[in-house]
Amino acid sequence: MHRGSAEAMDRSKDPKPATTIPAARKVSSRLLPPRDLLAKVALELFIVFVGVSAAFAVDNYRDTRAQNERRRAVYLALDRELTQMAETHGPRFQREMTRELNVWDTAISRGQNPSPPTFRLPGAERPPTGAWDAAVVTGSIQLIDPELFYELARFYNRADSAGMLYQRYSESAQTHIRPYLGDGAKVFWGPDGKPRPEVRVTIQRLRDFRQRQGELDREAYQLRAKLRRTAPR
To answer: Long-range contacts made by residues 87-94, C-beta under 8 angstroms, separation at least 24?
Structure first.
């Protein structure tokens, strides 16, 4: 009797494996979030990702649009500057220099002693290079076609050279010709009946500038055509 009671009591103290397994599953299920919560978090992350991507896309679009506007502005400014050399100011100055030099040469060929040419560029004493200089300083010149950039750089270097030729002529004319125009043509001629040396030098400098300026006019016309072919639409 006592032995059976003791055995019953021992069995009552034994662990019951069948009841511990469901308990473990119940605890683990509490640690895992429900599926609808995971879906909500994933949706929110996706919305954030889409929003950030859209913001970057808008910024890139704005940057591209601003860059294209800058590019068009550079092309337009250079087009106008080249047009001045190719069609307006350049040809007009060329005609005036040619006219004055022809008057001088014709008079000499007839045995006359005329006053020398007095050509002067109105305003600046150099070909127009403002658009090019501004584009280089601001870095906007990098927006144009690379091959065209090389040709434009070479052209504007020649324009600077032409400006130096004109300044040499202008300084000589300001020193040896213009101050004496009121004294009559005879002051420009020597006792041997030939133009004074300083007068011959001044006129030769005018011829040199006219030649270089004429070359610039023709080159500006060709460059403008290339500029328009590569200009953004």
So the answer is: 87/221, 89/128, 90/127, 90/213, 90/216, 90/217, 90/220, 91/217, 93/121, 93/213, 94/210, 94/213, 94/214, 94/217
107-160 pLDDT, tens digit per residue, is: 999 999 999 999 999 877 778 888 999 999 988 888 888 899 999 999 999 999
- CA–CA distance, 126 with 165 (Å, rounded to integer): 9
For the entire predicted model, the pTM comes to 0.70
Q: Where are the alpha helices (DSSP H) in the chain?
A: 2-13, 17-31, 35-86, 89-109, 130-138, 146-176, 197-230
Whether 90 and 220 have beta carbons less than 8 Å apart is answered as yes
Q: What angle do CA 139, 141, 145 make, to 5 degrees?
A: 140
User: Among positive and negative, which fits the CA dihedral 150, 152, 153, 157?
Assistant: positive
Which residue is associated with the tokens 């750089």?
153
- For the record, the structure tokens of 118 come out as 């007095």
Beta bridge partners of 189: 195
Rounded to 5°, angle at Cα 129 from 126 and 131 = 155
Phi, psi (degrees; rounded to nearest 5) at 226: -65, -40
103/120 Cα distance (integer angstroms): 16
Cβ of 97: how many Cβ atoms within 10 Å?
21
Sequence spans of domains, the chain:
35-230
Rounded Cα distance between 32 and 5, Å, is 45
